[in-house]
Structures are given as structure tokens and as C-alpha cells.
């Protein structure tokens, strides 16, 4: 895993995509820094978060439409109940990268990113730099157009 | 102060040991409104900061916080309410599950657990035994609208207006 420098650690614009390793929904360990080179949207959510589930409805078609443009979406769930997490993935028909850090707001990844509310999304450039927090679809599309 | 309206539905499990020491082990906190109160770290932090709370879980189906209390702690629903209000929202409903032993539920009669008295109101007379669900009826534990209706019954329930931290009115469910 990783250590947190301070309790108030949180990502700021320009910061690098952290070298964070979490288990995916196949129970495989995935390093999010491995996605450097792609435009990456990191999405913090939980199965019990109504607004997150609603956002999934727009993320699914958005991802399908844009994944060929060197784009990856990484959802990090902070669900403490893995069963509910897996059920939500199936129900919401999520096909992008699904990771879990099962410790609610105290999840190390949520602390590292500085998540204050769910959902919160972080957009990283292909160079692995944070370019926007809670970007609009247009901001993501504009970022995908940049070379 | 956030203007977030919260329904507070708490399952307070009063575990009667051999000494009949009541103990609250769990509470469900239900949120309503446009915002997802459960999705705010600030609200979560406030709830986990309650000394009696061991852990806080969430339930989408009930849009509820589920509060688990530490063993051996005595939770006064009044101090729980205050903590909720300190967090910037209000209690809309509080339902407690308490363990009672052959308790007659009769309107205007009271029983005491942990130095806190509970008086029945609007209840169907029956004999209660084991774990029972009751709703706290006092001001601040029901919606303002509901309280306006309930206070009209003050003649019927003379103690109702005298809300104190150690005396509550309950309705059997």
C-alpha cells in the first residue's frame, strides 16, 4: 500500500497520479499509476451513495463512447461491504476499472485524495497530472482532445 | 448551520443484562431531502465523534446511517439528539428498540430504565416483553408538523409539555 504524509494530505491541481495499489472486482491488485499515458478519471463512490449511483448512469455511456480515445475511468469504492459493491457494479452495468478501498471516508485512498463528499472525481492528463476535480463532461472531452 | 432536514430513525437496542442495565447498541439515522447527507464526510465525522458510537455504517435502501454503540455505554437519546443538532441537522424520527420485561403499555403510565423515565402515549394497551420498538414522541424527536399535532394532546397527556433530558414519551409500534 502506501503511507500518508499528513492527515490533511489531499491532491491539488498539478499533482501526479498517485502510485496507489488496490484490489479490483476480480480480486486482482491494480496499480493506478499503470494507467499513466491515458487520460484518467478517478471516481470515488459507494454503493450506498445515491448521487454516485445516479452519476454511474451517465458515466457508463460516456466511458463506452470515449474509451477508444486513450481514456480510462477508475472507480474507487469505499464500500465496507464488498457484496453490496459487487452487486452495484452488476446492477449499474459498470465495465470500466473497479477498485475497492473498503473503509468509508477513512479509506487511505480517500484521505490521500482529500475526498470530502461522495461522489468526487479527479481528472488526470495523459502525463499523469491532476487537471480538474469534479470535471464536467465537456472538460473531460476537451482534455481528451489535447495531445 | 446547514439547512439539511434529516429523518432520524434510530434503533436503540436496550440490552438488559441480569442487572436490568439498559444498553443502546444500534441506531439508524435516516436522511431525507435533495442532498445525500450520508455522502458528506463532515456529517460522518460528527457522528463517529459521538463517544458512545463504535462505528457508523450506511444503508442506501433506507438512506440511513446505522450507528453501532460501544458495549457498556449508556446512551441517552437526548444527548444523541444534541450531537445530531450540533452537526447542523435535525431529528425527524427516532425509533428505539428496547428490551423490557413484562411491561404494561398503558397511556400515561411510566417505567424507568437507566434513570430515564418513559411514558406511554398514543399507544395500544398491551403487555410488552422482550425487544420492543417504540417511537420517541417528544419535541425535537418528531417533525415540527407532527409536534404541532401532538401538543394538542397535552390535556390528555399532562406530562407531555414538560420535556426534560430524563423523561421521554413513547408510542409503541
Quick description:
Helices cover 29% and strands 23% of the residues of chain A. By secondary structure, chain A is α/β, with parallel strands linked by helices. Mean pLDDT of chain A is 92; it is low at 1-8.
Summarize the structure in words:
The complex is a heterodimer of chains A (147) and B (173). With 147 residues, chain A is an alpha/beta fold. Chain A is globular and about 40 Å long. In chain A, strand 3, helix 1 and strand 4 form a beta-alpha-beta unit. Chain A has helices at residues 50-66, 82-91, 108-113, 137-145; strands at residues 21-24, 29-31, 39-45, 71-77, 97-100, 120-124, 130-133. Chain A has a seven-stranded mixed β-sheet. Mean pLDDT of chain A is 92; it is low at 1-8. Chain B has 173 residues and is an alpha+beta fold. Chain B has three helices and ten strands, in the order ββαββαβββββαβ. Chain B has helices at 41-48, 77-86, 144-150, and strands at 4-7, 26-31, 53-59, 64-69, 89-90, 95-105, 110-113, 116-120, 126-136, 167-172. In chain B, a hairpin with a 4-residue loop joins strand 3 and strand 4 (64-69). The longest helix of chain B has 10 residues, at 77-86. Chain A binds chain B through residues 46-53, 80, 84, 104-105, 115-119, and chain B through 36, 38-42, 44-45, 56-60, 63.
Rough outline of chain B: globular
Radius of gyration of chain B: 16 Å
Instruction: Point out poorly predicted stretches of chain B.
Output: 1-22
Mean pLDDT across all amino acids of chain A:
92
Q: Helix segment count of chain A?
A: 4
Tell me about the biggest sheet of chain A?
A: 7 strands, mixed
H-E string of chain B:
EEHEEHEEEEEHE
What is the straight-line distance between the termini of chain A? Answer: 32 Å
The CATH class of chain B, by name, is Alpha Beta
Q: How are the strands ordered across the major sheet of chain A?
A: 2-1-5-4-3-6-7
- Approximately how much beta-strand content do the residues of chain A carry? 15-25%
The biggest beta sheet of chain B reads: 5 strands, mixed
Low-confidence stretches of chain A: 1-8
Q: Bin the helical content of chain B.
A: 10-25%
Helical content of chain A, roughly?
25-40%
